[in-house]
Amino acid sequence: MTNDTTRSIPGRVRTASRPLALVALVLLAGTVPALATGQSTPAISIETDSVAAGETMAVPVVLTSAPDGLAGYQLELSVDDRAVARFENASYPDRFGLTTDPVVSSDGGTVTLEAADLDGQIEPGASGVTLATVTLAGVGVGETQVTVASNQVDADGGGAVEPATEAATVTVTDETTDTVAASSTEASSSAAGSATESASAAGDATGDATAVGDQSTTGADGSISMALVLAAVAGAVVLAARTAR
After folding, report:
1. Is 55 exposed, middle or buried (CB count within 10 Å of its CB: 0-12, 13-18, 19+)?
2. Which residue ranges of the chain lie beneath pLDDT 50?
3. CA distance from start to end of the chain
4. What is the pLDDT of residue 166?
5. Whole-angstrom distance, CA of residue 111 vs CA of residue 152
6. Whose CA is closest to 91, among 74, 117, 115, 70?
7. Per the confidence metrics, is the pTM higher than 0.85?
8. 197 in the Ramachandran plot: left (φ > 0), alpha (ψ -120 to 50) or beta?
9. What is the CATH class of 43-173?
10. Domain boundaries in the chain?
């Protein structure tokens, strides 16, 4: 009976191990979505700034994160109000091995970008990936938005990526106003500098006048002392003459 009991132990261990394995699989299945949720969601960021009417500015188009790397993309950016700003051109970083020339619409309202990462330069887990740099020109004073009208982004291996997109605001200022403001600031700085120099010059003049006054007083004192000496000598001579008589 002892032998039968001993032989039954391995069988019991194998039987008990099956529920444990199922529990482990269930726990693992619940952990994978949690890990996926913890990863940052890729987004396309358009980093705009203000520009004066008649001037241009370079605007980076950035993929905030690439959890599975980046194989390539196709984007179309648009400007809502062409009377405020318009696209002029675009360029790609050198890391992309295959690119399509940017296509700017005739009215400057849209620009189409397309590039591929053939050499695997953008690896899984990369962040802050500059996809392109577009050139925006200020047309008229005001504000407008730049949006990603359509996009296709592929991860390494061909998997589709659906990045979030947000519109960016472009502010176009009056070049004349900016120039006048800059001139006023420069004039104020120059006036302040001139006032400081004038005050310094006045201080130097006061110091010189004081020095001259001191010298004049010293000279007068010297003359008075010499006169007293001569008077004393003359008195001594007169007294000696009288005594001799």
Report:
1. middle
2. 1-2, 4-38, 178, 180-182, 209-224
3. 172
4. 87
5. 15
6. 115
7. no
8. alpha
9. mainly beta
10. 43-173
